[in-house]
Amino acid sequence: MTQKSDQRETAPRSMWSTALVSAFGGPFGGFLWIGAGRLAVISLVVISAVVFALTYIGFPVVSGVDLTWLTNLSSIAPKILGAAFVLPFARRFKPDKWYAHGLWVLVLVFLSYPAALAIRTFLFQPFSIPSTSMVPTLQQGDYLLVSKMAYGYSRYSVPFGLLPIEGRISGAEPKRGDVVVFKFPPDPSVDYIKRIVGLPGEKIQIVDGVLHINDVAVGLEDAGTFSYEGNPAKLQRETLPGGVTHYVLDLTENSIGDNTRVFEVPEGHYFVLGDNRDNASDSRFTVGFVPYENLVGKAVRLFWNSKGNDYSPRQMVNGSAGG
Fold first, then answer.
1. Residue 323 reports pLDDT greater than 60
2. What pTM did the predictor assign?
3. Which one of 103, 127, 150, 318 has the fewest beta carbons within 10 angstroms of its own beta carbon?
4. pLDDT digits (tens, 9 = 90+) for 48-87
């Protein structure tokens, strides 16, 4: 009986069990399951490095081809790839190592997740752009990285409310012109992304489509046209106090947001606008003033566009527009 038990323990794992563990535990868990500890560590390091490198460099797009459907497979594809990566090795190893048993595989896989969660919580978090409110800076289908450390951390920085604090810790003040992700003040379960144009204590007003800060108009000049939903739209270059320049769209003359009342920004709050000035829900309307603690992070870099739009000229989100 002991001999048969030993034979079962040292026999290679079945293809079905290997596929199942690899699908839900990734290549790291799959290699642990079959007894290939070295390959488990190598796969974890290599896959992490490749993902980081591709995210920084940017994933390729197929010009004009809408690949939004791929995002619907984002939860299935890694499972298939994980199984496909490990299965060729399943019969080459014997699960005779201490870590190749079910409980240890589960524990080690579980322990590998905090590193990914820490990166997402404290360093960088990916977001996608579903609307056109930040065109031309950000377009529908864009995927971008947001720096979580740019402004420190608040209760909105950590998922599931695991950081129950008031205000921010290790906080840094955002600068005028920063493109930021924040929690929608009326409903903090919703993420918004807009550009900060007004700082605490300032007076903000839009007059004839021109942004005024403390009764002084910012620089605004025509910069040609931009193709928006198949039609040409007026493209303008806006220069904020401090020198940050960026492009904005003017879709309609005398739109509802082209002339506003004076907004006095309270302390600890910010005034935000969408770069698509005639098609943005921002501080002129339902968003209102954005509390400092609602800031999630600063948009820093695009890494893909699911709709086949070239994003390379726009990859650095918070850089100034070219001349």
1. no
2. 0.85
3. 103
4. 888 888 888 999 888 888 888 877 777 788 888 889 999 9
Secondary-structure breakdown of the chain: helix, strand, coil percentages, each rounded to the nearest 5 = 30, 25, 40
* Domains of the chain as residue ranges with CATH: 2-124 (no CATH), 129-314 (2.10.109.10)
What are the φ and ψ backbone dihedral angles of 51, each rounded to 5 degrees?
A: -65, -45
Q: Decide if 153 contacts 162 (C-beta within 8 A).
A: no
* Distance from C-alpha of 169 to C-alpha of 76, rounded to nearest angstrom: 37
Among this protein's residues, is 74 annotated catalytic? no
Residue written as token pair 């939004």: 68
Match 């942004």 to its residue by tokens. 211
> Is 133 among the catalytic positions?
yes
204-220: pLDDT as tens digits: 999 999 999 999 999 99
The catalytic position among 133, 147, 154, 306 is 133
Active-site position among 148, 194, 234, 298: 194
* Alpha carbon distance 197, 271 (integer Å): 6
Task: Kindly state the DSSP code that residue 161 receives in the 8-state scheme.
Answer: G
Coil, strand or helix at 163: coil
Helix and strand totals (H; E) in the chain: 6, 14
Task: Identify the band that residue 320 occupies on the pLDDT scale cut at 50, 70 and 90.
Answer: low
Please answer whether residues 155 and 293 qualify as being in contact, where contact means their C-beta atoms are separated by less than 8 angstroms. Answer: yes
- Distance, C-alpha 241 to centroid of its chain: 28
